[in-house]
Amino acid sequence: MTPVSETNKFIEQELSNVLKEYEYGVIPNSIEILPTRSLNSDAHQSSIFKLTLLENVKLIITIVEEGYIITEVDPLETNVNEEDLECAKKWINKPFETMEALLLAASPKFGEQFHQALHAKLSNLQQSQD
């Protein structure tokens, strides 16, 4: 297996994980894989995707060796809270090791949903041990 195909396999797996793991913390059905914009002929088509935060802010995210990078931020609606928009914009072009870290930084509402989901999982685990 070549390094390029290993990278592509990793990217496909990461996107699959994002689709499954974080759907609760973004607008439902908003995660979409986009064609690559890279001029590199070895780049895989699934290395760029978009999603919409619960704050109605659309992010374009690129997966690179350093991790996840927000490359574009746009309001989904004209009545988006300016603070929510600025919260996401301040992270443009800054790499995050994990998708979770990116979403926690860019979306306060994701943080709320994340903590609720974590609490529910821990409660279920505790109940199953009782």
Automatic annotation (TrEMBL):
Residues covered by the GSKIP domain: 12-125
InterPro entries: GSKIP_dom, GSKIP_dom_sf
One Pfam family of this chain: GSKIP_dom
Domain of life the protein comes from: Eukaryota
Name this polypeptide is given: GSKIP domain-containing protein
